Amino acid sequence: MLDRITAPTLQQLEKIELIQAQKQELNNGIPAYTIHAGTQEVIKIEFIFNAGSWFETKPLLSDTTNALLNAGTNRLSSEQLADHIDYYGAYLELDSDFDHGIVAVYTLNKHLNHVLPYIEELIKGAVFPENELHIHLQNSKQRLQVSEEKVADVCRKRFRELLYGQRHPYGLYPKIEDYNNITRNDLLEFYNKYHHAGNCTIIASGKIPEKFISLLNKHFGGNDWEKPMNTVNVLHEEEHKIITQELVLKENALQSAIRIGFKLFNKTHPDYHAMQVLNTLLGGYFGSRLMKNIREDKGYTYGINSVIASFKHSGYFFISTEVGVNVCQATIDEAKKEIEMLKKYLVPEQELQLVKNYMTGMFLKGIDGPFALADRFKSILFYDLDYEYYNKYLNTIKTITPNKIQELAQQYFIINTITELVVGKK
Predict the structure, then answer these.
(1) Alpha-carbon distance 385 to 216, whole Å?
(2) What CATH number is given to the structural domain containing 114?
(3) Which residues contact 130 (CB under 8 A, 6 or more apart)?
(4) pTM higher than 0.85, yes or no?
């Protein structure tokens, strides 16, 4: 009989064996990684190009190019492409970030033969019709105008500008005039330069069918879109001035958005894992110190959190929240107080153990299913890391001590270098 009274003993997670991506190459050299996992006859295929905003010569090139890949080809209009993909129950996702432009398709295995020709069509044959470009830019400008009225959106954008500078890709945000400067020729030039076989990586996850690589070769392994790999190392200079305080005044604001933080490092740094534990303790989960103090005890906000953001070429730490304008300064003071407490006093073992249990559980949740495994793989692939990265992460969670937490807080949380931004009223 099951014992429903006694709680099960807590088990330590010593090491984990993830289902790893298997690498093959298409006939034209494209690396193709497959993660065979899951029980459903469904597959996700991602075509990832080194074509993010890091490579732009003017704002919006990466985002606009990638967003309009499905806007039409010489053979099919955007409506026809959408109808064909929808007919087979597939789902297309177009995304871009600082480093990559991504075309992702989800489909049932039984329809893969029918869906891939349309993905091939839009990846290789995009023509960026003028009318589709015009509609996209108009809609984007309207979204920007709406966003500029939201204190949280303005705060998020301006904060990275303060850290990296308005000309750096990590700090650059488009302005209305940037949408007026984008032309179809700009998109074609960026597309031809970066969206080709020499600049592509394929990652497939799910129930990988037999002869999958042969099918990829049929549609993407030829020399019809083959170009040399882009080997130019694009560099951008960061601004090194430190603006410690700024207020972006919004006279009609009922709430103020707050961001407090500083430039840090990315996940390749030896202290990254340990800093993740420190960050979780401070503001990285619902039971964090910031939430207990500023939400539960003071009632200043519905939510406050801290984050360590990792990019390929940099990283930064920040605390983020929205509060009533009458408690804005008090919230900032309390957040800094919590930072100073971590520097001054050792974390109680019981509190640290709770954080360790939470982080271990969240890691296990984050590897549940083939698509989650693909995301984990991507997060090491593009940093030139291997799967041992995750065992080191779990080991750090297991072994980190209160003394190490205090040491990290004292080393990296230097109050006079912290950038403090308020959008609203203070």
Answers:
(1) 26
(2) 3.30.830.10
(3) 184
(4) yes
pLDDT score at 236: 73
| Contact predicate 301/331, CB 8 Å | yes
- φ, ψ (nearest 5 deg) of residue 414: -100, 105
- Do 161 and 282 sit in the same domain of this protein? no
Domain identity same for 147 and 181: yes
Let me know if residue 415 belongs to a domain: yes
Residue 240 lies in a domain: no
The DSSP line for 275-341 is HHHHHIIIIISTTSHHIIIIIIIS---S-EEEEEEE-SS-EEEEEEEEEEGGGHHHHHHHHHHHHHH
Report how far residue 272's alpha carbon sits from residue 310's, in angstroms, rounded to the nearest whole number: 9
The alpha-carbon radius of gyration of the chain (Å, integer) is: 24
Across the beta sheet with 255-263, the strand order is 245-249, 419-424, 255-263, 315-324, 304-310
Alpha carbon distances (Å) from 205 to 34, 143, 202, 215, 258: 6, 33, 10, 15, 39
Is residue 37 situated within a structural domain? yes
Domains of the chain: total: 2
Q: Is the residue at 11 inside a domain? A: no
Last residue of a domain, one of 154, 187, 220: 220
| pLDDT at residue 253 in the model | 83
Residue 313 and residue 210: Cα distance in Å, rounded? Answer: 38
Owning domain of residue 147: 22-220
The verdict on 257 and 213 lying in the same domain is no
Contact by Cβ (8 Å): 274, 315: no
For residues 34 and 156, membership in a common domain is answered with yes
pLDDT at 260: 96
Please give the average pLDDT of every successive group of 10 residues along the chain, which has 426 residues: 70 77 95 95 97 93 96 95 96 95 97 96 96 96 93 94 90 91 96 94 96 95 82 67 79 90 95 98 96 95 96 95 94 96 96 95 92 96 95 95 97 91 91
Instruction: Examine the domain organization and report whether 277 and 145 are in the same domain.
Output: no
Query: What count of residues does the chain have?
Result: 426
Residue 34, sorted as left (phi over 0), alpha (psi -120 to 50) or beta, turns out to be: beta
Question: Pick from 220, 254, 287: which residue ends a domain?
Answer: 220
pLDDT at residue number 1: 63
**Spatial contact of 226 and 198, defined as CB atoms under 8 Å apart:** yes
Asked whether residue 416 falls in the same domain as residue 277, the answer is yes
